[in-house]
Amino acid sequence: MALERMQVTNHERWGNLVKTWSTGKNYLDDDNEYPIPTTVEEFKEQLAKAQVFMTVPDRYTKVKFVEQQMDTIVVRLPPAVAIADSEEKLSKPGATYPLPPFYKRLFNGMDPVIPEADKFKVHAERIGDYTISFCA
Amino acid sequence: MAVQNFADASSIRTSELYARASAPTAITAGFRHFLGTPAPAQRFRAFGIDPLESPSHYAELRGLMHRLSRRMDAVIKWPPHQARSAEHWENPFIPSGYTYLLQFIAHDLVHSAIPLSVAGGLGRGTTNARRTPLQMETLYGSGPVGSPHIYALDAPSDDRRTKLRLGRMRWKEKQPATGCPFRDIARTPAENVTGIDRSIAGVRVALTEALVADPRNDDHAVMSQLTALLALLHNGLVDIIRGREDDAGPNGRFGAAYKRFLCARGALTAIYHNIIRNDLMRRVIHPAIYASYCGPAPHFIDRLASANGLAIGDWEIPFEFSHGAFRFGHAMVRPEYQINDLSLHDLNNTLEKSSVNDPANMPLDETWMVQWSRFFEINGSTPNFSRRIGPHLSDGLGNDQIFPAFDETERVGLLYRDLLGAGLAGMWSVDALLAEIGDRRPHFIAMSRLLADRAYRVDQLREWLVSTRAYGALTDEDIETLSNDPPLPFFVLFEAMQQTEGLQLGLLGSIIVSEVIFGALASDPQSAGGGSVADQLDLISREFYLTNVLQDIPEISNMAQLVELTTEIAELQQAVPAFL
C-alpha cells in the first residue's frame, strides 16, 4: 500500500503557522495562542485553530520541532522508505511528479508539466533542496 | 384538472401554515417544510432563541455554528471493519461514484442563485428554481430548443439538435493529429466586455465557459466527468434510436429529431430513476426504512412528498432535506482520488479543476479522465470508497480559496456554510420533528433509543461535544444548547455515526431522504410503479414509435451496469485513457 503523506489544504495559513512558531509573533491574525506543540494531538489542534486543514496520517505518533541555528548545518534525511515509495510511484509509466498547487501561480497559471524524462531528475533536485534549505 | 390540483395543493399548504404558525413565516419560493410548516415553538433554536424571530441574534448563531464546525474538525475514531479490507475511515459499501451521483441528484432537486448561508437569510435570492423533481433538468436544461448551447448540431443547416455537447480532452505532452477524444464536457472561451481575460497570453486560451445546463455540474473534475458520462449515454441512445426509425423525409426531419431526443431523454431518465431506487437508495438508506419505501406504492407521511396531485412546476423541496439531511453527502467526500490507473489527485486539486477556477488548464487532461471502475464496483474492481458518514468532513472541503470566509467569524470551508444555512432556514427542531414523525409512524422512532429517548439523546450528544474540548472551544452554554437542540444536518451525521457506524444514514436521515427521493419518483408516471426498465423503455418507445426502438437496451439497475452500457454503445472498450 502506498505511503500516506501529510496533505496541506491551505498552504498560506500553514506557512503563517510555521512563521508564528518560529518567531513567537502571531501571523494568523487571530486571537488564538500557538505555543510550539509537544504532541501530535496538540499539533493537530493548532492546525485546526489556524484553519490549515492538514490531513495527518494515523501513523504519526510523535512530533519533533528542530530550531535551526545559523552556525549549524542541519541535514534532514528523509526516511529511506519514503524515497523508495516515491521512486516506485514515479516508475509507473505516465506517473507525474506531484507539486503543490501554489506552484501553478509561479508557472504563470499553467499546470506545471514535468516531462517523463525529467521526473527523477526533479525528484532528486527537490530532495536535495528541501533537505538543506532554511525554508525562510 | 391541473388547475384544480394546484388549488388543492395550495390550500393544504395554506391551511397548514395558519394552523401551525402564529406569525407569518418566511417561506422562499420553491421551498417548503417537511411535514408542513413548524409552529414557532417547533423550530430550531440557538440558546433558546428562534433565529427567524430574532435576526438581531444572528451574530450569536454564527458564533455557535462556527464553534460547532470547529468541533467537527476533530477526526472521528472509527471502529475497524469486520470483513472487508479498507481504511478505517472508508466505507467499503459505498464506492465514491455514489458521492457524486448524490451531488448530481442534489442539482436535480435544488437550484438556488446563492447559498442561504452566504445570503444571510431567507428570500435574498435563495429561491429554488427546480420545480419538477428528478427529471434530469440539470443535464438537459430546457431541451434543444430552450437551451441550444448545450446541444451539438445534427446538420450543417442547424435545423435540429439531439445530442448533448461534449468537448475534447487534452493530452499534457502531445497533441495527436486526429484530435483528442470527446471525453470532457464542452468548454469554450468568451471575450468579456469588462476586458478581463484569464488566458495566458500567447500560450493558452482560457476556457472560462462550461457548456452545460447547470454550472454546478462543472463544480470539480469528478462532477464534470460524471456529467460527460451521462451525456455519452444519452448520445449513444440517440444513435440507437436513429438506427431504428424510419426516414422522416426532408420536411419531417425537425419533428423526427425532436421525437428522437424525447425518446432518448425518457429512456435515460427511466434508467436514472431505476438506479436511484434500486442501487443508490439501497446503499445509503437504513435497511428498515428502505424496506418501507422501496416498493411501488409507499405510504408517505409527508402529504406533499409525492408531487402527484400537484400541477407541473408546483413541486417544492423541504428545507429539512435540502438544508438538513441531504448535506450528508459532504461527509462522504474523500481526501484524494485514484482517478485512473496512472493518476492520484488530492481533493484540493480535484475541487480546483473547473472552468471557473482553472480556465487556463482546460479542457481536462488525461490525468483527469475518470476510469469508472475506480468509482463503481465493476467486474470485481476495488474502487475509491467514500468516507464513512459522520460529523467530520475531509480537509480539502476547508479550502479557503474555494470556500472563503464571508462573515465576521472568518471561518472558511463548506461545513460552516452547511450549519449556518440550516440555522437560518427556520427548520424543525430535531425534538419536534421526532415527535411529529412519532405521531405518524411510532414504530420508526421506536427502532432507535437515540430517537425515542430524549434524555439518552441529549446525553449522547453532550458526551460527544465535550469529548474533544480543544476543538472549537465550546462553552458550557454552547454544549447545553447544541445537545438539547442540535442543528439538523449535524444531527443526521451524528446519528449515522452512532447507529450505523457511518456505513449508512441513521433512521431520521433515512426517513427525510426517503420521503423526498421516493416521493419524487412516485410523482413520475413512468417510474412510479417501479417496474422493470425494459417495460418502462417499451412504454416510452411506443409513445413516439410504432415499435420498441429500445428493445436492445439491457436491464439497468445499478451504476456499474450503466457504465458498462455506455462503454458499449459509445464504443469505449479500448479507449485511451481507459474509460472502464
From TrEMBL, chain A:
<protein>
    <submittedName>
        <fullName>Uncharacterized protein</fullName>
    </submittedName>
</protein>
TrEMBL record, chain B:
<protein>
    <recommendedName>
        <fullName>Animal haem peroxidase</fullName>
    </recommendedName>
</protein>
<dbReference type="GO" id="GO:0004601">
    <property type="term" value="F:peroxidase activity"/>
</dbReference>
<dbReference type="GO" id="GO:0020037">
    <property type="term" value="F:heme binding"/>
</dbReference>
<dbReference type="InterPro" id="IPR010255">
    <property type="entry name" value="Haem_peroxidase_sf"/>
</dbReference>
<dbReference type="GO" id="GO:0006979">
    <property type="term" value="P:response to oxidative stress"/>
</dbReference>
<dbReference type="InterPro" id="IPR037120">
    <property type="entry name" value="Haem_peroxidase_sf_animal"/>
</dbReference>
